[in-house]
């Protein structure tokens, strides 16, 4: 292996430390405490673990943490009413509705009912439009974390060729917008891209966000390129369950200049950036300077 390992776990710890410092300063100088409300509908096991982790880390950085756990059969009107209450609550600066929602709920309607200024996931259509036109917005947490790590590793990204494999609204599209904002030349590739391997081989930055276990192998990677692996896939190998990314780690690491591992790469940055977004939302709501280095 020749690649530098980009340690997302350590990076996320530094980000949380920065957030905690800002939160402490807000309390001392302004008497303000950022508040994050997380809404979980149903009892999806993966979502349960994620929400518990979010709540724990929110408290650790000194923020006000609120959790609303609703039954799987909660009526859409009741969920919308709860969001309206949170929108109007001055102690809540960030609102996150955990996805996926049960099938009877309209996810787009629910997400777009959140006040865009409190939409710390960055999924509201207003924030999508603002990001796409280069204006100030709430930025989706996973792409924001990827950009932070890329900036930390490379410094200036200007002029680099970036290929994003995956076109989801949650990762692929906003990732491309952020890279464009940093003056990269960006290609969005996907499962129907002709000669995907050749497209990937031209990338200085290769973001694997396609949702297919170990799809990107070393022969897709340009020597010395940086591979950001967003994928989280649970597979069974040699009779054991294992967590792997969208990039086959060993073969990619043998060619790449730098790579994020799975686990321990992009994943920890998602929650760290959720906290950073909540802090940013709080500062904006109170007309205070935004924390440097924690937003775009």
Automatic annotation (TrEMBL):
NADP(+) binds at residues 166-168, 232. Belongs to the tetrahydrofolate dehydrogenase/cyclohydrolase family. Residues 6-121 form the Tetrahydrofolate dehydrogenase/cyclohydrolase catalytic domain. It comes from the Bacteria. This is Bifunctional protein FolD. InterPro entries: Aminoacid_DH-like_N_sf (IPR046346), NAD(P)-bd_dom_sf (IPR036291), THF_DH/CycHdrlase (IPR000672), THF_DH/CycHdrlase_cat_dom (IPR020630), THF_DH/CycHdrlase_CS (IPR020867), THF_DH/CycHdrlase_NAD-bd_dom (IPR020631). Its EC number is 1.5.1.5, 3.5.4.9. It catalyses: (6R)-5,10-methenyltetrahydrofolate + H2O = (6R)-10-formyltetrahydrofolate + H(+); (6R)-5,10-methylene-5,6,7,8-tetrahydrofolate + NADP(+) = (6R)-5,10-methenyltetrahydrofolate + NADPH. It comes from Pseudorhodobacter turbinis. Keywords: Amino-acid biosynthesis, Histidine biosynthesis, Hydrolase, Methionine biosynthesis, Multifunctional enzyme, NADP, One-carbon metabolism, Oxidoreductase, Purine biosynthesis. The keyword Metal-binding does not apply. Residues 140-284 form the Tetrahydrofolate dehydrogenase/cyclohydrolase NAD(P)-binding domain. Gene3D superfamilies: Leucine Dehydrogenase, chain A, domain 1, NAD(P)-binding Rossmann-like Domain. Pathway: One-carbon metabolism; tetrahydrofolate interconversion. Catalyzes the oxidation of 5,10-methylenetetrahydrofolate to 5,10-methenyltetrahydrofolate and then the hydrolysis of 5,10-methenyltetrahydrofolate to 10-formyltetrahydrofolate. One of its GO terms (molecular function) is methylenetetrahydrofolate dehydrogenase (NADP+) activity. GO terms for cellular component: cytosol. GO terms for biological process: L-histidine biosynthetic process; methionine biosynthetic process; purine nucleotide biosynthetic process; tetrahydrofolate interconversion. PROSITE patterns: THF_DHG_CYH_1, THF_DHG_CYH_2. Transmembrane segments: none annotated. Homodimer.
